[in-house]
Structures are given as C-alpha cells and as structure tokens.
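Morning, I've got a small favour to ask if you have a moment. Here's the protein in full, and shout if anything looks odd to you:
***
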Amino acid sequence: MSMNLPGRPHPAFSQSHEPARGMLLPPALLPVAIALFLVGGTGPNVLLALLSIAVLVVGSVLLWRPGESPILLFAFAYPWMQGSVAIFHANWLGIDLANYSTIPGEIRNAAALSLLGVLTLAVGMRLGAGRRRHVAELMAMRQQALAHAMQRWFQLYAWGWGASFIALSSAWIVPGLSQPMLALASLRWAFFFLLAYAYFVRVRDRGRTFPLVFLYELGASIGGYFSDFKTVFFFTFLAVLASGVRIALSTQLAAAALTTFAGALGVVWTAVKGEYRAFISGGQAAQAVSADYVSRITKLFDLITGLDAETLTRAADQLLRRISYVEFFGAVLTYVPASIPHTLGAILWDAITRPFLPRILFPNKDVIDDTARTNLFTGGLAGHSEGTSISLGYVAEAYIDFGEIGMFAALLAIGIFYGTIYRALIRWRRTRGLLGMALASAVLIGVGPLESSFTKIFGGVAVSLLAVWLTAIFIVPRFAPWLGAGWRR
C-alpha cells in the first residue's frame, strides 16, 4: 500500500515567497528586549535584569537560523524565560529577588547561574549544529513543500496521527513498551510541522486544511489531566518561522494575537486546574482520568464561566511564579556541598546508561523519582505530595554533579549533543532536508524546559531517535518515498 499521489509542481511555487535570508536577528528580538527593560528592567534587581537581557540577545544571535526550524532557539529561549521571569516579576513588584520565593535558598545566585548555564547550552548547540544551511538547501525544502498539494501533506499527517493512536493504545495495553511507544506517538508532531510548513510557504491555494487541523489539535489537547495545549502553538510558531517568508505587519499582529490567546489560556488553566483535576481523577491523588470527554469539557466550561477578575489576577501571579524555575536550585546551592557532597557525575552517568537498560528486560530497574531526588538535595523541601512530581532540572543537576565551575562543561557537552542531533537529522541521506528538519523539531521539543531532569530528557531523546531511525528506514520508503527524497547536491 502506498501513499503516493500522482503529482506535479504546485502552481503556487512559481509565485512563492523567497526565504528571508537577510534577517540577521529573530523577529521582534530587539522590541522584546526593550520592552523587558522598560517593564521590569529597573528596580532592586537591575544587574540581574541586564544580565538576562544580554543572555537573551547573545543566545538568540547564536541560534537564529533563517529559513530553518528554530527548534534550537526554542530549546534556549524557553529555559531562559524560566530563569528570568522571577527577576522581572520581582522588579515589577519592587522587591528584592531574595524575598520573592517562600522556598529558602540562594535564589539570586541560582538565577545568575541558570542564565549563564542556558547561555552555555546555546553555545554548545551552535557548535553542534554547525554552519547554517546553504540557500540552495533552503530553496530545495521549499520546492519539496510546494511540489505537492496540501491534500498530500494532510494525508501524511493523517497517517502520522493514526500511527500515534496505535502506539498510544499499545503503550496502554503493554506497559513495558510504554517508553518506545510514547516516543513513536510523539513523532506525529513532525507530520503536523510538515503540514504547517507546507501551508505557510504558500502564497495561494492554501485551503483550510491546516486551520482545521490546528483547531482539532487544540480542542483535543483541552480536557486531559494536563491540558497540554502549548504543544500545538509551539509547533505552529516553529513552522511559521521555518517557512522563511518575510512577515507582514498583518501576520505579526495575528501572531501577537495568537500569543496573547495562548497566554490567556495559561492563566485560565492555572485558575481552574486544581478543582478540574480533582473532578476528572475522581478525587484520587493521581494523574488519572476517570470521566468521559463530554463530562470533562462540561466541567471545564462551568469552572471557566465562574471565574472573576480577582481570581484571574491571582492566577496570573501564580502562573508567573510557576513558570519561574530557580527556587529549588537556590535551595540546592545552600544544601550542596554544605550538607551533602557533589555527586561527581553520578546523575549524568545514570542518565546516559539508563536508556540501554529497557524495563522490559530489566524489570527491577529503579523508577525515576524526581520528588525524592529533589528532597535529597534540598533537605526535604519538596515534601511528599501525591499526584505531582517535583524535579530539580538539568542545570541544578549539573551543579550537583560538578559544582559551580564544572557544571558549565557538562552543559556545553549537552548543548553539543542537541546541536549534533539537529545537524545529523537534517543532513542524513534518509531524512535530508525538510523531513529531517521536522523530525529534529519533534525529537528536541522536550529538551528545553528548565525543570526537566536530564535523566528523563536523555532517555526520551534516545528512544525518540530509535523511533526516527525505524521511521526513516522502514516506514517512509514504503509509504511515502517522495518524502525522503530530500536535497541532493
């Protein structure tokens, strides 16, 4: 069975936009930097605010690659935001950062080390990714997207969605295969990226396929335990920037409106998630869903319509504090090595070796308990709440392993690892070009969050790369050989 459709160059190709190779800086970088300084750049933490803005500019310049997926820039910018929010929020409130959190610790030092750490990560990703793609490669990717009708890209996405559904069902039936099946299921976002990219590079004949898919993914993501509606926004923005078109003012306004809408969803979700999770889990202190979809949506609607201005204001403050992720690192700085010594690479080694010990073959392998690790290295500050997991994050883990100096060498190596993955996928003959860019985006989307443990990140990336290899070797040549054609010198 083949997915091939008799095709010819799409009529829009001759009138497509040229890639915006002249854009040396990411769109809106300078306005964002200026706005940050005006809103929260002055106050008790002015030096940290200036450091944050400088790190943002330098990291963005290092990783901005016009006409390519900005997945590496995203992997830097997201943790930068988490390391900076507390600084600007504290300045806005007019308080010293040391008084911002209820968790005792060296939060000022933690913020500075986090920012320098993610900048080091950016340097490593730049080294690993190598040179920017030549304009001929970028044009070849655009030509491939335009040479096939939107119907074909939608069909590819539909197949990816079906494979994801089967993989998720298999993970539920056979728990021992959950990690590889979840990794395979996550690759559907690569096909969503391809559909979005093909949509945005077009000048005409776009149709309504992608907007309908976007609305479906957004609606499907709302109603679960976590309501992970962020992912569909993330991949849409990645595709918009990867399309390389010069962004018109109307498009910029639409992007700003979409960003505002996503932020509003975040505030609303923060306001209702406690009561909503208690309802859908049946009162259990576990990440479980016991209510049907219609009941979940009805409950969510009732909770949202009952919100008032005071509740939303409080939720916005909570959201900002939740995005910030330097408090537990601050606690670690006071506890390690004063009360417990550095682990001399034990956490990093466990992260690297763990994927090669699959649970189906090693059923007695230790379960990753983020909260237990956080309690161990903070003196029990994470508590023992059920149904949630509290991690330290990869920057704090690098410090625990190697100290304030050695942590930067570890983060540089991790960044090189991420950049090498991007370069390998976009250049490998099986995935060269557009397919590799989409797969790299799907593999690396989860490496950014500052709260993520490298133990989980490395395992997830390793299994995702295995899923990519299987897809590129066995699935693409069989069902979509035209997709793996890639770029030829």
Q: What stands out?
A: The chain is about 65% helix and 0% strand. The first helix runs from residue 29 to 40. The radius of gyration is 23 Å.
